[in-house]
């Protein structure tokens, strides 16, 4: 917090003042990473203001992420509730939805949607040419979208199906595709 107080004191001082006053007690330990020491403290022991302020802001961000500090009251509090019981009305809703429409397979949904709309044609390559046949690209794109949509991952989708694709095949396509 001493580092933040120093930033507050220097907030109204123009950036043309590139170094802190020699009388200032500038906190370094726990604020400036070892790799940044040369950029913050020069050979004469004078502390560069801009580099130090950057280190203060980064260390504050890290401390907030680790919940080591907060400004005022915490904005969010997530209680540890353990495993909650599913409400009976939600269980009934799930049962009714399954009875009316059944279980929808995401891959079948993606394939049917592409059949009707040809949305995979909107994915174009950023490469100079396209050597892979369009039907193979279509299949790979659908598998990648399925892997991402289910949060299963490309490796598991590639290893678990009878589609003839390996993990390595869809990934370069995913990296070279862009939407228009």
UniProtKB/TrEMBL annotation:
Q: What is this protein called?
A: Tn3 transposase DDE domain-containing protein
Q: Would you say which domain of life the source belongs to?
A: Bacteria
What InterPro entries does the entry give?
A: Tn3_Tnp_DDE_dom (IPR002513)
Q: Where is this region: Disordered?
A: 161-180
Q: Where is the Tn3 transposase DDE domain?
A: 109-159
- Give the organism the record lists: Nonomuraea africana
Lineage of the native species?
Answer: Bacteria, Bacillati, Actinomycetota, Actinomycetes, Streptosporangiales
Q: Name one Pfam family in it.
A: DDE_Tnp_Tn3
């Amino acid at each position: 917090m001493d580092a933040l107080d120093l930033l507050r004191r220097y907030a109204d001082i123009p950036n043309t003042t590139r170094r802190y006053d020699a009388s200032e007690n500038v906190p370094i330990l726990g604020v400036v990473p070892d790799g940044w020491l040369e950029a913050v403290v020069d050979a004469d022991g004078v502390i560069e203001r801009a580099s130090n302020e950057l280190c203060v802001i980064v260390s504050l961000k890290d401390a907030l992420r680790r919940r080591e500090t907060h400004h005022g009251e915490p904005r969010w509090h997530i209680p540890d509730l353990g495993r909650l019981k599913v409400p009976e009305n939600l269980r009934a809703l799930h049962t009714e939805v399954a009875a009316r429409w059944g279980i929808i397979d995401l891959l079948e949904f993606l394939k049917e949607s592409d059949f009707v709309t040809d949305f995979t044609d909107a994915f174009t390559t950023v490469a100079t040419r396209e050597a892979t046949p369009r039907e193979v690209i279509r299949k790979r794109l659908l598998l990648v979208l399925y892997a991402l949509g289910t949060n299963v991952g490309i490796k598991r989708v590639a290893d678990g199906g009878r589609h003839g694709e390996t993990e390595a095949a869809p990934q370069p396509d995913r990296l070279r595709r862009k939407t228009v």
